[in-house]
Specification:
Elements lengths: L2 H10 L8 E5 L8 H12 L5 E6 L8 H11 L6 E5 L3 H10 L2 E4 L8 H8 L4 E3 L5 H4 L7 E2 L3 H13 L1 H18 L2 H18 L22
Parallel strand pairs: 1-2, 1-4, 2-3, 4-5, 5-6
Helix pairs in contact: 1-4, 2-7
């Protein structure tokens, strides 16, 4: 996606591309804690100029989604730097992710956070709660940041906003990590290797199991 295309997509939503963007892409669900993201943004904004984009949709199996969306719109209506976007086309989501300075994933519960990997693939630093699979997706302090609580999130975001070089370094590491671990061809090879190991040896070596990787901090995971 070119810079011009990003600009055009964001202009459709009246988003100022000159101001640093914090964003979270997720459905409107209390388990994604968008209210917590708003609180984090407000604390960051006290010290650094920025804007917030919450972009998402309603899950078909979640009747509360529309209510969460309306509550967010109501509670943030006085801040023109908060953009609550619903049912954006893929091109808009792509533009938001690529234009963001920092991407958050504040989920209280999560499986494999697809939007986390999308952000990492686009070379963006992610600040996230270590919920579920997210703790396996991010190498804390290397390809992104796992945080416990608002104050820690605010601290990480402020550091990234004030240090463009750090954002770039973490973002590039994140993209390389996704390329090496989460793209479909890599996963297919892993499954085939696992099947081959079992077929030949009846067991899988420890080094092939993600929880044995030396960077994985079991204490960081939310159970």
């Amino acid at each position: 996606m070119s810079e011009d295309e990003i600009q055009k997509e964001l202009e459709k939503e009246d988003i100022d591309t000159e101001k640093p963007i914090l964003s979270q892409i997720s459905r409107f669900d209390h388990w994604k804690d968008p209210e917590g993201v708003v609180s984090i943004y407000k604390k960051v904004k006290e010290k650094e100029e920025c804007q917030l984009i919450l972009a998402g949709s309603f899950a078909s199996d979640d009747p509360e989604g529309e209510r969460v969306y309306k509550e967010l719109k109501e509670t943030t209506r006085d801040d023109k730097n908060i953009h609550i976007l619903c049912e954006c086309p893929d091109s808009c989501i792509n533009a938001i992710q690529r234009a963001s300075s920092v991407i958050l994933q504040n989920s209280k519960k999560e499986g494999f956070g697809l939007t986390v990997t999308e952000a990492m693939w686009k070379g963006k630093p992610v600040v996230a709660r270590p919920a579920g699979g997210i703790a396996l997706q991010i190498r804390d302090g290397h390809t992104g940041f796992l945080v416990n609580g608002e104050e820690e999130a605010v601290k990480r975001i402020l550091h990234l906003l004030r240090d463009p070089k750090k954002r770039d370094v973490v973002g590039k590491r994140a993209r390389r990590y996704v390329k090496g671990h989460f793209l479909l061809p890599v996963r297919i090879v892993d499954y085939l290797l696992a099947a081959d190991f079992i077929n030949r040896t009846k067991e899988i070596p420890e080094e092939s199991i993600i929880s044995f990787h030396p960077w994985f901090k079991i204490s960081k995971r939310v159970w």
